[in-house]
Amino acid sequence: MIANIKKTNSTFDAMKKIRAILVDDEEGARDVLENLLLRFCPDVELIAKCNHVLQAVDVINKEQPDLVFLDIEMPNYSGFEIVTFFKDINFEIIFVTAYDQYAIRAFEIAAIDYLLKPIDIERLKNAVARVVQQRNIEQQSQRLSLLSNTLESKQLKNIVISDKGQQNIVSIESIIAIKAQESYCTIHTTEKTYIASKNLKHFETVLESVPDFFRVHKSWLVNKKCIKQYSKSDLSIQLSNGLTTKLSKYKKAEFEEALSA
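Structure (tokenized):
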């Protein structure tokens, strides 16, 4: 049964708020998230609670919410499948999940917000704040497609790189190297260069399932397929785009073994 939530009496407040629904097949989980939103997220107006995807589709068509809190593991249809019921996605989605570590890494790759059960209050507040500050439905649709493909194939082919407020879907194969610059990284690809406000450890973690990438230095992550020349004498690596990077002496043996693999 769809639970309708009492709307605010203030028209002004309602106009300012993010209109949201939540979808979860477990009543207890719905109640917990509702209480957290009421206590900690004043920018959210919860207009309905649904216990499966088809009910959520009906509510979305009627109410046109701004935001959907969506559990992933539900009977009949998973949370991901909700996108198949709409030609255009005109709402933001925050997934709620007790998923495994592979799936969580896939969320990070696609730059989509998720809440891991049990829900952390600060992460909930931050996720809502991002929706309040900036909504980009076209990018959301692209990210959902990337996430779905990654989870379905269990192979990482693309990642999302945020550069100057724009989210770019970048082919893994096109990445030549990633260079650390304090808390930022420069991502060199065959097409162009991106500047991302992520540290090198983030990209090393995201790409750990891709054997072609190797951390050659504290400041460099390189694609082995893009190595043009390697000098053992001065521990330098020349890449296909003309870049040259140093190889850490502590990585030499491991790197040479990886090259011959």
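Residues 78 and 218 are 41 Å apart (CA to CA). The mean pLDDT is 87.
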